[in-house]
Automatic annotation (TrEMBL), chain A:
The keyword Lyase applies. Keywords: Lyase. Transmembrane segments: none annotated. This is Carbon-phosphorus lyase complex subunit PhnI. Coiled coil: none annotated. GO terms for molecular function: lyase activity. It comes from the Bacteria. The keyword ATP-binding does not apply. GO terms for biological process: organic phosphonate metabolic process. Residues 133-148 have a biased composition (Pro residues).
Length: 375, 136
């Protein structure tokens, strides 16, 4: 337990001055600007927006600069800033089917209607360090086709080979508002809307490791990357003033649809099932990991045996948030002097008892050494 | 409105400068806040919350009574005010002028940028060949 301490003001103030100095680095080297971060470290900005759960490129760039490139610290800063603003409402659900596509690939379908476009990708690069090119050649252009780009899941759904997530609208046409874990603490079992919200803001590294574990046999789900798409989608929001939905602008998102096996059940024929990932910006690794973990967490719903960590929703959802995780792990470095003094006293007393019993019986192994100092 | 919210404040202001803007008052000064962005499970299912985005909203009323509102992504108060002003003017008899002098040129610029982006994306279109092809 952390208990309040007093004092140390001057040391803390000077430590923060030193931090600002170190953050600036060698003053003969030009200072990096937030514009440069927003334009040239775009994927770091995207990750901070996604896990900070706040779409704002300038703020994310500022947070990265202030955090000296520590992305979890930057995510923490963004979450803290977000808490200072009022919420005006919710957008209408965005339509990834109407995305202005900048990248779209499928590892399952070679001849995808609408075509596959690689877009700006690290895939197929040689991963060799090269001197940076400050003025690279302008990108090639080609006539853009105007054919529609249906989601891969819609293609398979036509044959009944894959589950559909389409859901019947309620009689009055209104949709139930989704659960919101920023307003109400998560409880278990959690529905899929809450699980996806949790995963969308969850730590990329944690979700990547869990997704990897499912591939290695800890809760196998046999995934294919059905489709990954990156692009811009329009957002609309209901306006009380106007009395209709107002367009508010466009955001970049990455979507991943994983296609997974399902052996069927007594009542259901075998078919493919789906996992879903949707994140802000260009965060492909995160979107893929999210879709694999989303599918794993559907074990209960699909009547699969829950035996691996990635299938255990309480384990996954309780530990995915890196701001919560870093808060609890890093709080250990704050003064715990009173706690530690108490433990020190306890250990000394246990050692005395141990020595007394050893002296009286002539042996040391009668002591109950299973008792923890922290008890 | 779909055009105006995608344009930048200086671009809107420059186009609006070509018109004589009628007298107006700011009913709701630009205010920065959040909206929760919703997606759909599987892309087409029930809604879920993806995360929040910053927005700025404003409301402007013309002296002739028309009220314009805006809510735009980001934290640019001037853009929110200009979009609300255009919205109000679009409801007055200035609508054709706003469309012609402000919206149409901005739309053309945005479309040009979008076409360039699409043509660059199209150049990365890929056709993979499996080594043993299952078809002719």
């Amino acid at each position: 337990m952390y208990v309040a301490v007093k004092g140390g003001e001057r040391a803390i103030e000077n430590a923060h001055r030193l931090l600002a100095h170190e953050r600036r680095g060698d003053r003969s080297v030009p200072e990096v600007t937030t514009d440069q971060i927003a334009e040239q470290l775009t994927l770091a900005v995207d990750r901070v927006m996604t896990e900070g759960s706040l779409y704002d490129r300038e703020l994310a760039a500022l947070a990265i600069k202030q955090a000296r490139g520590d992305l979890i610290e930057a995510i923490f800063l963004l979450r803290a800033f977000r808490a200072t603003l009022p919420r005006f409402g919710s957008t209408r659900p965005l339509d990834t089917g109407a995305m202005r596509i900048r990248r779209r690939i499928s590892a399952a379908f070679k001849d995808l209607p609408g075509g596959q476009v690689l877009g700006p990708t690290f895939d197929y690069t040689h991963r060799l360090l090269e001197p940076p090119v400050s003025d690279p050649p302008m990108p090639a252009t080609a006539p853009a086709p105007s054919e529609p780009t249906p989601r891969v899941s819609d293609l398979l759904a036509a044959d009944g080979l894959i589950e559909t997530t389409a859901f019947p609208a309620s009689p009055d046409g209104a949709e139930q508002p989704p659960g919101d874990l920023t307003r109400e603490a998560l409880s278990f079992p959690a529905d899929r809307d809450l699980r996806l919200q949790n995963l969308a803001r969850g730590d990329e590294g944690f979700l990547l490791a869990l997704a990897y574990s499912t591939q290695r046999g800890f809760g196998r789900t046999h995934p294919f990357a059905g489709e990954i798409r990156l692009g811009d989608v329009a957002l609309e929001m209901w306006s009380e003033d106007a009395g209709f939905a107002l367009p508010i602008g466009r955001v970049t998102v990455t979507e991943c649809q994983s296609i997974n096996q399902f052996k069927g059940s007594a009542t259901e024929p075998p078919r493919f099932t789906r996992g879903y990932g949707l994140v802000f910006g260009h965060c492909e690794r995160k979107a893929m990991s999210m879709s694999l973990v989303d599918r794993s967490l559907r074990a209960r719903e699909l009547d699969e045996e829950v035996k691996a960590p990635a299938q255990d929703e309480e384990f996954v959802l309780s530990h995915s948030d890196n701001v919560q995780a870093t808060g609890f792990v890093e709080h250990l470095k704050l003064p715990h002097y009173v706690d530690f003094q108490a433990e020190l006293g306890l250990v000394r007393r246990m050692r005395e008892e141990h020595a007394r019993r050893a002296a009286s019986s002539g042996t040391a192994n009668v002591v109950d050494d299973t008792r923890e100092a922290a008890e | 409105m779909t055009v105006l919210v995608d344009a930048s404040a200086p671009d809107i202001a420059a186009r609006l400068g070509a018109l004589s803007v009628p007298p107006h008052e700011t009913v709701r000064p630009p205010e920065v806040g959040l909206v929760m962005v919703q997606g759909r499970i599987g892309g087409d299912g029930a809604p879920f919350n993806v995360g929040e985005a910053t927005v700025t909203r404003a409301a402007v009323r013309l002296a002739s009574g028309e009220m314009g509102v805006s809510c735009v992504l980001g934290r640019d108060p001037e853009k929110a005010r200009l979009v609300a002003l255009c919205d109000a003017m679009m409801q007055a008899d200035l609508a054709p002028a706003v469309e012609q002098e402000v919206v149409a040129p901005l739309r053309a610029n945005l479309l040009e940028a979008q076409m360039l982006c699409e043509s660059r994306t199209a150049a990365t279109r890929v056709d993979f060949f499996t080594l043993v092809r299952g078809e002719d």
